[in-house]
Design goal:
The protein has 337 residues and is of the alpha/beta class. Helix content is 39%, strand content 16%. The two termini are 19 Å apart.
Length: 337
């Protein structure tokens, strides 16, 4: 199977996903929610939309053209998949197979059904993938490793797979930069970056940087369209718990009924909480962001005005060549010998 065959197979997978009927999609989302209560139909549908975006033939051809593929011998590449948001492990699945390697993956117990389903569809489309896709509970046979987990899990991975070439990803989160003059429509778009997937993804905004004396009233008012998030029982449990902690500790906070906003110099906030930090100048802002450079997945700003940032609302729709932790997974895979 050459590169052209693999591109055709994955492009066909994208077309199959796009051709799903409403009834078929409903059955898939219901099964996913039964496996993981965080995986609502809206979250699963958005994940499918993002993957279809990856799998357009033109996008795949442009992406793979940057690398020397079909050159190196095939390796058995292990992937330890996360399960914080639907199909978060699919990009590694795609990279390993598109690079021409064989995949041995440990599925997350939180997201086992969806990745299995897509792999079955891919094998139906291109049966030669059957010998290249293996799901196992142990990855001892791997000749290289890609793993995603918490900072604590990463230390275990780094020790356990120290004898192999590896990519080990740790905790990351995203942040937003506000000028204080953003129109309500733009702030509404920022809400997508905060509330999509209930804030569970590394591309979710967990902190905002605002000018000194920033007035949060407009921001919280424009987010009222996201208020239904509080009706999700797991999110609501987190909201009530975090609110009680803030009250017991007499920590000042703002509350619009579904998100708690409080000052912190930390980057990663708990579910239902948004941290903020003020800055005095552009130079001050740059220094504050630099302090977290190893923990920031992406930065968003109004229309992407801040250098290197994405526009509000764009955080959850990465391109196929946008790599987690800014580590070029395909480059790593093409250099395995």
């Amino acid at each position: 199977m050459n590169l052209a065959d693999r591109i055709t197979a994955f492009a066909s997978l994208g077309q199959r996903m796009e051709a799903l009927t409403a009834m078929e999609m409903e059955a898939i989302t219901e099964r996913a929610r039964n496996e993981n209560a965080w995986f609502t139909p809206e979250s699963v549908t958005l994940a499918f939309t993002g993957i279809r975006h990856f799998l357009h033939r033109t996008a795949l051809e442009q992406w793979t053209s940057r690398y020397a593929l079909d050159v190196n011998p095939t390796k058995l590449v292990g992937v330890a998949m996360a399960g914080n948001i639907p199909l978060v492990g699919f990009h590694d699945f795609l990279c390993v197979l598109m690079a021409g390697h064989r995949l041995i993956a440990k599925k997350s117990s939180q997201d086992a059904y969806l990745i299995t389903l897509l792999s079955e569809w891919l094998i139906d489309i291109e049966p030669r993938f059957k010998d290249r896709i293996h799901f196992e509970d142990r990855l001892n046979a791997a000749q290289a490793m890609i793993a995603t987990g918490s900072d604590n899990t990463a230390r275990y991975f780094e020790y356990y797979f120290r004898h192999l070439p590896y990519i080990i990803r740790k905790n990351r989160s995203s942040c937003a930069v506000l000028m204080g003059e953003e129109a309500p429509a733009l702030l509404t778009e920022l809400g997508k970056d905060v509330f999509t997937y209930f804030g569970l993804g590394c591309r979710n905004v967990s902190k905002v940087y605002v000018p000194e004396e920033y007035d949060f009233s407009t921001l919280l008012r424009t987010w009222e369209g996201y208020a239904s998030i509080i009706h999700h029982h797991k999110y609501n449990n987190n909201y009530e718990y975090q609110k009680s902690i803030l009250l017991v500790n007499s920590t000042p906070f703002l509350d619009n009924g579904f998100v708690l906003v409080t000052a912190s110099d930390r980057l990663v906030s708990p579910i239902s909480v948004l941290f903020y930090e003020t800055y005095a100048s552009q130079a001050d802002l740059n220094v504050k962001l630099q302090q977290h450079v190893d923990k920031i997945q992406c930065i968003v700003s109004a229309n992407g005005w801040y250098a290197g940032s994405l526009a509000f609302g764009a955080a959850q729709l990465p391109d196929v060549g946008d790599y987690a932790d800014r580590i070029d997974t395909m480059k790593f895979l093409t250099e395995l010998v």
